[in-house]
Amino acid sequence: MILLILAIASLGAGLYSAIAYFLGAQSQQSYHNLLLGATLSWFVFATMWASRKPKP
Amino acid sequence: MATKLASLVSQMDQINEFDREPVHASHIQSASRFAGLFAGEHVAATEFVIGAFFVLHGVHAKDLLIGLLIGNILAVLSWTFICAPIAVSTRLTLYWYLRRIAGPGLTLIYNVANALLYCILAGAMISVSSTAVGFAMGIPTPSLNDWLPNSAAWVVVTLLIGCLFTLLAVFGFAALSRFAGVCSPWLFLVFVAGAIATFPALGVHTNFDNFWEILETKVWNGKPVEGQEQFGLWQIAFFAWFANLAMHIGLSDMALFRYAKSWTYGLFTSTGIFPGHYLAWICSGLMVAAANREMDPGRMAYGAAGVAGVLAVMIAGWTTANPTIYRAGLALQSVTPNWPRWKLTLYTGLITSVLACFPIFFVRLLDYVAIYGLVLMPIGAVVLTEHWIFPALGIAQYEAERKNLLFNWKVLVVWIGTLGVCAIMPLHLFYRWLPAYFLAIILYIVLNLGERKAQ
Fold this sequence. Notes:
The complex is a heterodimer.
Chain A: H1 2-22, H2 28-50
Helix pairs in contact in A: 1-2
Chain B: H1 2-15, H2 31-39, H3 45-56, H4 61-90, H5 94-102, H6 104-137, H7 152-197, H8 199-202, H9 211-219, H10 233-242, H11 254-257, H12 270-290, H13 297-332, H14 341-356, H15 360-363, H16 365-393, H17 399-403, H18 409-424, H19 433-447
Helix pairs in contact in B: 2-12, 3-6, 3-12, 3-13, 4-10, 4-12, 5-6, 6-7, 6-13, 6-14, 6-16, 7-12, 7-13, 7-14, 13-14, 16-18, 16-19, 18-19
C-alpha cells in the first residue's frame, strides 16, 4: 500500500510543479527538474507496486 | 491453389484455437476490471500529434470542445449499442464470428488487411518517437509537406528506433505490456502538466480571467496554418467518433466485450476515451500553440515538460507501437507457414520500421486514421446485419458455415463495393464512412434476400 501511495504522491508532485511554475512560484528549469524527478520516482514506486507478489 | 489456401486457413484456425469456444460464464469479468482496462487505453503517442493537428487545421475553440464532446459520446455509444451487444450475445471474437459469416478464406484476407493497417499505424508511432530522439540529436523533423524522408539522418534514427522497438517486442512482449500499464498514468500527467506549463508562454493570467480569450485567439483561433484545410465542428466530431472505428463499428473489440457481463459495459470505454481523446488532445493542442504551431512532437513536448516530455514522446511511441507490432505479427501468422512468433514479430517490426521512415503516415495521420477505419468498417456492417437484421427479416444466417463456403462472395462484394463507393463519394473523407455503413447494410440485405426462409 505504501508503494502505491508513494507512486501517486510522485504524480502529485509532478502536477504541483507545473501549477507552481504557472503561478510564478518557481522557474521553468526547476519545474522541468521536479517533473523529471517525479517521473523517475513514479517509475520506481509504480513498478515496484505493480510487480509485488500477492500475499498467500 | 485451393489446397494451399485451405492449409493457410487451417494454420490460422490453430493460431486462434484458444478463442474458438464462447467465453464460459466463469470467465466473465467484473465492471471494475473493465473500467480499469479502458482507463489507460487511449493515452498514446498519437495523442501528441492528433490534438496538435486540430490547432494547425484552424479549429475554433468552441467547435473543438463541442465537437470532441459529441464525437466521443457517439464513440462510447457505438461501443455500447453496436459492439458490446453482439460480443455479449455471441461470446466470440470477431475472427470466429466472421468465419461463420464470411467463410475462412475471406476471414484470412481480412486478417492480412488488418495486419498491414496495423503495421502502418505502428510505423506512425515510431515516427513520433523519432521526433523526440531527433530533437535531442538536432535532426530536423520532416515538415507537414514531406511525404518522403527529409534527410539520411532521419532515416537512420527512425530505423534504429524501429529496430530497437522490434527487438524489445520480440524479447519481452509480456513484460513490456505490463510496463505500458505502469506508463499510462504518468503519460497522462505529462500531458496535463505540459499543458498547464504552457499557460505563461500563452499569456494566461493566474486568475484565469483571460483564459477563454487566449484559447480563442492564440490556440484554437480558427486560422489554419499554410497548406492545411480548415476543420469545423463536424469534422472534429466525426474524427473523434471514427478514431476507433475499427474497434467499435468494425467490431474488433468483441475480443474484449465477450468477457463482459452485460452490454452496458460498453459505457466503461468512457473512462479511457474522455481522458485520452478529449483532455489529452486539448493538452497537445495547447503545447503546439506554445511551440509556434510547428508540428514537431519532440520539440513541443520539451518546451512544455522538459526532458520528461521528450521521454514521454519516446516511451508513448514505444509502448503503443509494441502491441501494434505484436498484433500485426499475430494476424500475419496465418500466412507464414510454421514460423515461430519471434520471427514473425521480427519481420513485422522491420517492415514497420521501414514504413516509419516515410513521414507521410505521420504528417497525414488524421487521414490515415480515417482510411484505417473506413477499410474495416464494411465488415462490421456485414456482421451487424447478419446478427440482428437477418433474424428479423427471416433470412437464414451464417451462409458460409451452412454451405461450407471458403469465401462468401456476397461479403466480398459488399466489402469491395462499399470501399469503391467511398472512393468516389463527393463528401469529405471524414464523413464518408457513415453513409457507406448504411449502404453496406442495405447491399448485404439485398444480396441475401434469396436466402429468406419459407414461413
